[in-house]
Design brief:
The complex is a heterodimer of chains A (142) and B (1049).
Chain A: H1 2-30, H2 36-64, H3 67-85, H4 96-141
Chain B: H1 17-20, H2 26-30, H3 48-52, H4 69-72, H5 75-79, H6 104-120, H7 140-148, H8 161-168, H9 172-179, H10 187-197, H11 207-210, H12 224-227, H13 230-241, H14 256-262, H15 274-280, E1 281-285, H16 314-318, E2 328-330, E3 335-336, H17 339-344, E4 350-353, E5 367-368, E6 390-392, E7 397-399, E8 406-408, H18 430-433, E9 436-440, E10 454-460, H19 463-467, H20 470-481, E11 492-498, E12 502-506, E13 515-519, E14 534-536, H21 541-554, H22 565-576, E15 581-587, H23 622-633, E16 636-642, H24 650-658, E17 663-666, H25 672-688, E18 691-701, E19 705-711, E20 715-718, E21 721-728, E22 733-739, E23 748-758, E24 764-776, H26 779-784, H27 788-803, H28 808-834, E25 839-843, H29 849-857, H30 871-881, H31 886-893, E26 896-899, H32 901-905, E27 917-918, E28 930-934, E29 938-943, H33 949-956, H34 977-991, E30 999-1004, H35 1012-1019, H36 1024-1037, H37 1043-1047
Parallel strand pairs in B: 3-24, 5-9, 10-11, 10-15, 15-16, 16-17, 29-30
Antiparallel strand pairs in B: 1-25, 2-4, 4-22, 6-7, 7-8, 9-24, 11-12, 11-14, 12-13, 18-21, 18-23, 19-22, 20-21, 23-24, 26-27, 26-28, 28-29
Helix pairs in contact in B: 6-7, 6-9, 6-10, 8-13, 10-28, 20-21, 20-25, 22-23, 23-24, 24-30, 27-28, 27-29, 27-31, 28-29, 33-34
Classes of the chains: A mainly alpha (142), B alpha+beta (1049).
Chain lengths: 142, 1049
Amino acid sequence: MVYVWLAAFFLLVFLLVLVIYQLMSLADLEFDCINPYDSASQINKTIVPEFVFQGSLCLLFLLSGHWLMFLFCIPNLYYNLRLYQHRQHLIDVTEIFNQINREKKRRLIKVMSVVLLLLMSLFWMLWSALEADEQLVTVRSY
Amino acid sequence: MQPRGKEQANFPGRPTQPFLAAPQSSTPFRSPGPVGGIEVSGPSRAISPFVSSGPMTGLGASGSPQNMSPFLSSGPAIGTQPSSYRAPPPSMRSNGPSSPPTSSFSAQDASIYQQSQALGFPPAPMHPPPPIGQPHMPPSGNFRPQSQIPLVPMGPPPQGSSQLTSMSNMPPPSGSVFSAPRTPPQPLLQGYSNVPQRANVPPFQPDSQFQASRPVPQPLMQVYPAAHVPPIHTSQYHAHQSLVPPPPPVGGPMGFNSREQLQHPLTGPPIGGVQGLVEEFQSLTVGSVPGALDPGVDAKSLPRPLNGDEEPIKLLEMYPFNCHPRFMRLTTHAIPNSQSLLSRWHLPLGAVVHPLAEAPDGEEVPIVNFGPAGIIRCRRCRTYVNPYVTFTDAGRKWRCNLCSLLNDVPGEYYCALDATGRRCDLDQRPELSKGSVEFVASTEYMVRPPMPPLYFFLIDVSVSAVCSGLLEIVAKTIKSCLDDLPGFPRTQIGFITFDSTLHFHNLKSSLTQPQMLVVADLDDVFLPLPDDLLVNLSDSRHVVDAFLDSLPSMFQGTSNVESAFGPALKAAFMVMSQLGGKLLIFQSTLPSLGVGRLRLRGDDLRMYGTDKEHTLRLPEDPFYKQMAAEFTKNQIAVDIYAFSEKYSDIASLGSLAKYTGGQVYHHPSFQTAVHQEKLRYELARNLTRETAWEAVMRIRCGKGVRFTTYHGHFMLRSTDLLALPAVDCDKAFAMQLSLEETLMTTQTVYFQVALLYTSSSGERRIRVHTTAAPVVADLSEMYRQADTGAIVSLLGRLAIENSLSQKLEDARQSLQLKLVKSLKEYRNLYVVQHRLGGRLIFPESLKFLPLYVLSLFKSVALRGGYADSPLDERCAAGYNMMILPISRMLKLIYPGLFRIDENLLKDLKEGQEPLRQLPLSAQSLDPKGVYVLDDGFNFIIWLGRMLSSDLLNNIVGVELASFPDLSRVVVCEHDNEISKRLMRVLKELRAKDPSSYQSCRLWLCRLDSSSIQAITRLVKMVTTTVIVPFFYLAMLASASSNSCLQHME
């Protein structure tokens, strides 16, 4: 059980890194440290991996039977799927400046939800580790 | 058939097959493919000096403490500038109660008059016509002097009660005198009497200030002389004087009609500036019966913009250092000083910039060369030196007018100041005395050597292009323009033709005949030659001539219907990517092969009216946007000429032009006979007009304001830098402003447009336009300084952009909402003071705005739904409207209508009086007349149905009875006097605007099809049947803004 949480933890960390990277790229663009072509290609490179991580995280929760955590992941998954289906998941370099505020807001929300999940999974990881430890202790005490 | 390659040396190891058809040629050639060098990162940084200044422009960031000083404190600073650039004296304000009280009597009379009118008004279908036409000469002028005759003692400004008493004792007969004439009412004047009148009406009374003034309300008119004992008047007057800021508009109960009639007209306390108020708004009487179909507006009295666009030139008198309005116009030449004020200005706040507008002879933009000293710019915000900078410290320092930073004056630029603080050499330096200058940029403004003018042609040679005769016209036109291409010895040129394969043309100067190289591999496009696809025109002139001569015959008899547009685009990109330049695409079918193939869209009726409707107007394939981004990165501008009879997805093709600063020319169902002149003219103009290459544009503005969104054809390189691979005098850009600070303390805001470009002669230039606008705290001032043309241009662009993300219906609604809100706000501003219940009032400066907005709704891009205009035409019109300069935009949405039958019948000499523009209404059309409708792109010749057949036949040139299809008739010169005169008239009209050429269409109003609706639809005519409900509903909207929205169409 601990390993499930451990895996989820790492997935979440990856996810967080990717989204924050995208956010930084957008911020750079806004402050004119980078041109829109580079910014868009940087972001677009990380979007599909991000979606994959997100999907596998959901799958992990689903298969390991953590329904509650899975439920928490669902909105993000749905959002990603929808974007992908509408072919809007990639940043459009020609319109990037018009979309920059919206994109930043979306990613900020994503970061917040991921951080929340991260804290929860951290908690559950420790919990289950302690529990396992406790069980071990109880077993040993017998 | 084709000249074979003799020069095998050019392609080592290459077999000759490729010249035949060579579909198998791919493998050996794949390697030389990338020779074109796509990895050119240089051009993308070509403007880096410009870019680097980007972060500096964050003006709001760290304002230095002395930011305000030049305008407020520093005496010498102001001394150097003409004082006229400061805000106009407040005495012109309508609400300025402090101004000398001279004209109170006219005010009174007007109010009496108003009363009488109000009495007769509600039931009467024959109410007086509202004011129209030229508001600058108020009709009130007629009776005002009369009113003053019995009241001569009014002369000196009131000092105490005695004079005011005499005022109040005005004999009652004078009231009746003025109630008699039913000349156009001037309700504006009423306002002046209204301010004191308000004291009569408890609900409107600002209590604190009027306690003393109003002992008893006076219900009846007759008693009024007695009621006004002198003390009351004095107190009123004083009370009013203390009322310096006008009370905030009351949106509350407005039960005017009844109360107004009982109202008795007090002698108004003297308030000045009647003139100012008169100019301020017009009113329109609208019927008082809600829901009535006939709102009782005399359509003839509606304001009509018959003089086309009027540039706000008088601003130049106030701000002589501003650039001419042809280069830049603000939507209102008064910047609000606070967010709350801005939020009450519901129209867009922004600017329309036309950086390369053609100036008439004698007003060209002066060119300034600073030589090796470099261009004088502010250290911090990178503003260019301009007439508004101030020199201090005996001429050794100058203060930037945008960011207030004190900069050193370089030694070479030093000049002593005279006694008033002006530089002694002011007159010799255009950059210090003119709002528009052009600096010659030094090498620090270029990353690569200035590029030569480069024209590359991508020509569709599939069967439809050949059969329609298009190919021949294009080839001939290009050939005729070769001598006039700008940048003579350096100009580069190249061609690719394509159908289902790509045809490259080797134009090497040592050849006598051009060679054609065919590449059939569409999946992996490569260039068969490393160079010589793009050649110097003057070196290879004979080869280019030979190529253009043979081009039409080369593809004669082809039966190829496919179009490998995407691969051809890629190939063109590979050829041009090193240099950049202008790519002209002639496309006459839907792209059907290779990457970027498009499919038929827009046939699905069910899409319309749903949330997915807007996707039809967006590019379908991301390929086009990606290509557009790549093109801009490599300084390539794309112009699209689309000719398809059927759907050719202009929405997708046009995005190429949209992001590269290009233009879409749409000639649906091209017919050689009808359209060739137009195409020839447009293409020739495109090729020969002065073009600015590899340009970037930035607009800087003073502290506190910021440009947020930009609208037009360009690509944003950073938040405020517009990348324009090529820009010319036919392109304008719009942008919107936002306030960064909640309260602005400066008195003037400066804007500076800087366009850095390479001229065709290979010189790097910076064109700088500087303009100043006052900061105001008063909404009415914003309305007074509003510029209808700029507002319409910006609103139109916003609506077009909205139509790309919303339904058409929603796009129109949001436009309408803006208009209604602004009128409502304006009404709130005045209605309480001026008792204008039941009237639509609108500011004088915006009197045409409702009409123009309505015309926008009727424009091709925004009108109706599925059936009202074909999708392609709609998209093309949308792309077109995004780049049009203000005057052409206004002309397009509100075309000129001229009656010409007299000119045709009589032999009028040259120098006759010009044609008079008629209002676009059904009444203007006389069935016995001949009219020309000119929207700047097309002429429609309207032939009345009662026209003599002789005249008709002479115009058409054939027996009409035997020629039923008028759309196929070519208007050309026939061998008769009338036809010649017609052509002369058309020529005159065309000469008014050199930027486009109008092709002719005949519209014969026959008996069987003469319904107004048919004409309206075809001619886009804004008939009275449309306009009247609009006004009516807009008025109603001030009460309930939703009700009008449904009834608009």
